[in-house]
Every structure is written in structure tokens, then in C-alpha cells.
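Our consortium's second objective concerns turning raw sequence data into structural hypotheses that experimental partners can test. To show how far this objective has progressed, the report includes one record in full. It was chosen at random from the queue rather than selected for favorable results. The single chain below, 308 residues long, was entered without modification.
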Amino acid sequence: MSVEKKKILIEASGCHVHLTQAAIETLFGEGAVLKKRRDLSQPGEYLSEQRVKLVTKDGCVENVAVLGPPRAAVQVELSKTDCRKLGLTAPVNLSGNLDGASDVMIIGSHGEMKANGSVIVARNHIHMRPQDAEEYGVCDGDRVRVEVESDRKVIFEDVPIRVSEKFAPAMHIDFDEANACGYRVGTEAFILYGTPCESKGMSAMDMEQLINEVVKNVCAILGEEQQGKTCGGSAGSVAACSDGRAVACVSETGCADNVIREKLVTEKMAKELVNNCTCGTLCFAKGTIITPAAKDILKAGHKKIEIV
């Protein structure tokens, strides 16, 4: 099955700071203003001529860009690598969210200041205008999957959508993520539509082989080959899926004697569990990947998920 996907501009941002007007004057002198060097892709945003140094007791990062215009709060956006240089443990937050943010000393050409609660690792995200969101079929706050087409192909999961009339459509990542996915200017990225397995390019034959392999592992662990058996809802029972594959299920007591040891629980498998198991609790082995769509189906089918 082919996967629908739509191109989205992707851009990488290095470490930078946003300053209040008061902070600008503290760092660059009384009456100082930011001097625009060039516009950025987001309307009204620009890179300034000014630079600052970030300092902690463990290290420093020099030549850090200052972005304009001035904001209501000082915000320092670093990568995880930058944080290691400074000995900081900063939260991965969306820009503007300073909950749990770390502290740093900022040094400018005319002064310095202690910026408490200012340092975050900016979470990747996608900017869109309302008309773009309508075109892409998403809403503000939605999370999407984005495939980066490069020589180090990567799929970013759970990328938040941010919608505003002030935005231009673009996905933003930091330099750590850019290095991981082999990004360079001109690299193409696509929002994916479909199940995770489909979106990763897995063919029907590959999927069937994976399922068959998983079933063999489950049967080996349970020590039995059970096909065509109906799940009666008793503790430790085994249900047969519509294609004859055996899956383990448990009763309302949450008995973990029989555990579903699938590597990947897909939407199709979740439907089979809902349709063929009358028990209310399903135990999955630790490390099992249950896709979001599969979780939704199990939840809608009143199946409780336990990881054992």
C-alpha cells in the first residue's frame, strides 16, 4: 500500500537566545537595540548582528546568535550537545515554555546577567498558518510523523503542529537532529499519512514475515501451538486470530502466565485481539511496541493493557 505524504520545508537552527528589551540594554548598553542582519523564514523574525557568550561553572559557549525582535522573557535555546558543554540538564520544551528551564550567565559586549530559568532544548515542531493546516489536514496541537529524505533517512515521531496567522509553513529542528538525519540545505521532508508500518515502507510480504516470526517466538515461549482455539476469557487462555495465529490473553485478574511477546502490535493485530478475546486485560512483554492506532483500538474495545 502506498503512503500519502506531503512535502514540508525543514530548517535547522543553531543555539540562540531571545532577549527582553531590558536584557538587551544590560548586555549591549543603555538604549541599545538589536541590529538586523537578515530576516528569518518566520515573518517578523530576524537574526541580529549582536552575539553573546553563555557561561556556567562547567564551561562556556561563545558567539551565540541573538534573534529579534525583543520578547517578553529571556529564552536560551540549546541542543543537548550544547547543554553537555555547559553541564546543564535542560528540559525539551516547545519554544515559549520555560517550565523547568535551567540557569545560565549571559555575557554581552557591555555587561552580563544571570538568566535564571531560561535554558531549554527546543522541541522540534512545525509552523503553519490556518490555511496551511487545512491543506495538510491537521489542527493546532496535532502530532504528526515526518520523514526526512537524505542519505541518513530518519522518521521523526510525534512532531507538534503550531498554527497561527503569524507563521509560515516550516519544520524546525536543532543541529543535533540535523546531524542525525543528514540534513543540509535543500534536504526534503514529508509529513506522512498512514500507519507506522506503512509509512516505513514495509511491504505486505515483509509484514506477513514479521508476523509469522513473532508468532513462532510466542509459541516457543508458551511451549504450545494453539490454532483454531476460542478464547473463553479464563486466566491463561490463548486465542486464535482469524488467520490461525495464536496470541496470548489473560483474564480480568491480570494473570501474566501467558504474555503476548510481539515485537510490534499493529492496528490489524489489535483488531484481532478485540474481536477474538473476551478477556478484559492483555499482558504484553516489556519492550513490545504498540502503535498509537493499535492502542486506540484496544482502548475502544475495552481492553486494558499491562506491560509485564
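The partners drew two points from this record. Confidence is low (pLDDT under 50) at residues 197-207, 224-246, 250-256. The helical segments are 21-28, 80-86, 130-136, 175-180, 196-199, 204-222, 267-276, 292-300. Both points have been shared with the crystallography group to help prioritize constructs.
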